[in-house]
## 1
Amino acid sequence: MLDISSRAELSDGSIVPLDSVRAEVERQWRTCSSEGHRVLAVAYCDCAELTRIARADETNMVFMGLVVLSDPPKADIAATIRELHELGIALKIITGDNALIAEHVARKVGFDQPRILTGPEMRGMSAQALMQRAPGTDLFVEIEPAQKERIILALKKAGQVVGYIGDGINDAPALHAADVSLSVDSAVAVAREAADFVLLEHDLEVLVDGVREGRRTFANTLKYVFIATSANFGNMFSMAAASIYLPFLPLLPKQILLINLLTDLPEMTIAGDRRRFRTRASAAPLGHQVHSQIHARIRYPQLGVRLPDLRGADLAWRDNGTISHRLVYRVRRLSIADRARRPEPRPFFQNRPSKLLAAATGAVVVAAFLMPHFPLAPLLGFTPMPAKFYAIVAAIVLLYVIAAEIAKRIFYRAAARK
């Protein structure tokens, strides 16, 4: 506006050359911008004799003054941004405002030394240069609409998973380019249609809750898949290996189905497990795969102490398999959650599963011991065993849990050195 104006109107209505007040106008603009206010300049010209107004007519105008607008950030936004950072999510601001306004707002929401890239600088940057610069930039200021999409694509090429929030028509290309796009219910129709999610609450805390819930659901799903898969594989391998030298079937088909029922019921309660994650969810799958491998590797050596000379050994097999499965799950479950936060997980006895999961696990262990004494036990092929037999089962299970704990620590120490 200053460039297309040649005169200025003072508060008393007098008209003076713009050069006489230009320095004061620029000083006021910097002061207001550095305080986080948006500033609009207003100028006019006499166009009464014109029948059509073109850009060429926007010259020799009279500068009237500045309109100052205030739009402070929400009081709790700084805490929300810290929570997102703890979850491994970095916040970047893309705005058309000037650097002074953006830096002031950024400092108020928690950026101590924000790194800034301006739109004019981006014009002269290649795609490769922008890909190198974008990940380390906190504020993208004086950005033109087309440059928003460039920024998103540059971040993706740099290996980032990018989420973008926008509510205007100019945000639509960036919303389409982002891995996850979000808008609000008050946004223009184009932005809402381009978004993957539409927020009904204008609060970033919704994102924090969504990330935590999504990661919890993702991790609990993988817990069930990997734990059930590894346990079933171990059971089948043990059965196949033992059948080679035992003079009887270790387990009948109906007993196998019963074991699956007893072990699957507690695993269904994993959906309610609420252990939180504080970093990227990408660490969780590694933890699950690790413990699937550990479980499969340490399950088989129990074979030599199954008392093969007893025809009722199928009971011990079933008790050992069911109980060890439940207890070793506790060893693996905590370390899966902790893998996202530390290279070496805490011991299993510090595990605190959900109340429903703990109750279901305890019920299955009790049922495994009492089932031979139920009236339907003969139909299932179970018979009560001597007391010393249960002591042997308890010893095997204890050794199994200790082996799982040791294997878990050895593996994570080796992984941490890579």
## 2
Amino acid sequence: MPRQVEIVGKFLGEKIAFENGETRTIIALIAPEDGGAEITIKGEAAAGELKPGIEYRFYGHKVNHWKHGEQFAFASYVVQEPATSEGVVAYLQQCEGIGPATAWAMWEEFGPRAVEVLRSDPTAVASRIHRFSLEKARKASDFLSAFASVERAKIDLIGLLNGRGFPKKTIERAIQTWGSAAAGIIKRDPHYLMRFRGCGFLGTDKMYCEIGRPPGRLKRQALCAWHAIARDRDGHTWFPLQQGHQAIRASIAGADPRPEKAMELAVRSE
């Protein structure tokens, strides 16, 4: 699997979009932040999720298409908080109650700090922007604060899960399930990822060990026993207790195996 890299660019719009079941793949154009030639990107995105004029940080790798030439295949992306006038104005218009005129007024008043000021001090913005009520300012502030925390979580998850072979949708599903706390929850125990399709015990357990979690934890021992039994495809309804014990000792090795207590935990946890 190619090593992921990142590119930053302003989304210009979709060229093609095609759907296959729940998956929607787009081919689109971005203008890179360095001012170079437009870049063709390809990846999964819901309709309207990527907004023209907004700058994004895309994570993926370059590919060469036999017909369309070089493309950047992205696996995930986050919003890049903008500094240019056009970027700030487009970014602010994601908030309910902020149209182009209001967004430009905020830029004129606060410049590149407009997003930061609205997020942290909605009262100041409402007092200085004509016809922008305190209620609207507070709603926009709440939206931007929540948006920023989720974006930070997304960046953390990209760093945490990059190159580990989990499905592309894992980051999105983790944020839908745990919100901005997702990265912290997974760092504490990657086995939580097993609730998502394509995240099995072997992959999550490998990650668990690689990030330095305690190998002898009782919950992990119980999962090792469960996995050894679950992968048996001989059609048995009952399994000897010793089979679970052997799996635990083989997987835990010198990290204080406690097969009896682990099996008790597995049974209690169903």
## 3
Amino acid sequence: DVPPRGRDSRSGAGVVNPLAAVTLRAPPDDLDEVNDDIKYVKRHRRPLPGKPLVYEAFIDRSDDVDDVYAVTARRGERLRAVLTHGKGQVDLYLWRAGTRTVSTESQANVRRNLADFSGTRGRREIVATTAERTGRYYVNAYARSGHGSYTLRVSVTRPS
């Protein structure tokens, strides 16, 4: 980053540090990108019993604010997502089956479709719900501030 601090029209996100460019580890590939809203999510997955889905990705308040993942669950099953991250603040949303967008601009959408939310200033966010019906549920990581790598674990368990 070069002055002024943060992203700006003169230098964008900053200048390239040649030594760092060839010696530092690259962030993990975000294989599911573009996944900024439900309409862009091309695949949905179902976790195996006892094995959560694991996503490793990168999020950025300036360039990649939202990451959305689809998971299939059956009525009565318990969905749980745990996101761990480094820098910044990343909020975690869990959206019900039938949701058409993860936009929070419409309070009606939030009231009707949001199943759970976690937005602390910590490095770990957890959301969970019991599936009201069979279908695709959506987990949404949202960069409130900063940027960095994260790991998202999504599990589905059957009722006992």
